[in-house]
Amino acid sequence: MNANEISFENLPKAVGHLLSEIAELKLMVSKGQPPVTTPKRTPLGIEDACRIIGKAKPTVYTLVRKRLLPCYKNGKKLYFFEDELLDWIATGKKKTLLEIRTEAESDVRRRNQNIGGR
């Protein structure tokens, strides 16, 4: 629950939320578990981006200019996040022959059903 959402009308809901958070913290402390934190995303420079995706700097600059590669710009410097670069690589997956064959067979079956159903 966000602090901006707290008003007199939803005060009971806010108190309930706080009680559940406190109970969760007590449980973690009693078990000796560290609190779960989301990992911080650290921005990478152009050199790290080149190393991750295996491309030369001019190629990365071209991909950025064509808006094909996810990036952020602050001033004159480009920044990248590793998870976004890995996702970008994953979107370029080539289908295997088995995947192509299975897809073609399902298309043929679907078309035959459509022709027979007319």
How would you describe what is shown here?
Among the domains are: 1-37, no CATH class; 46-90, no CATH class. Helices cover 57% and strands 5% of the residues. It has helices spanning 11-31, 46-53, 57-65, 82-90, 97-116; strands at 72-74, 77-79. It has a two-stranded antiparallel sheet with strand order 1-2. Strand 1 (72-74) and strand 2 (77-79) form a beta hairpin. It is extended and about 60 Å long. It comes from Gaoshiqia sediminis.
Low-pLDDT residue intervals, each spanning 5 or more residues: none
User: What proportion of the residues is helical, as a percent range?
Assistant: 55-70%
Largest sheet: 2 strands, antiparallel
Q: Provide the spatial order of strands within the biggest beta sheet.
A: 1-2
Order of helices and strands: HHHEEHH
Basic shape? extended
Using DSSP, what is the number of strands? 2
User: What structural class do you assign from the helix and strand content?
Assistant: mainly alpha
How far apart the termini lie comes to 55 Å
Global Rg: 25 Å
Mean pLDDT level:
87
Task: Tell me the number of helical segments per DSSP (H or I, 4 or more residues long).
Answer: 5
The proportion of residues in beta strands is 5-15%
Domain Helix-turn-helix: 44-91
Pfam family, one: HTH_17
InterPro entries: HTH_17 (IPR041657)
Protein name: Helix-turn-helix domain-containing protein
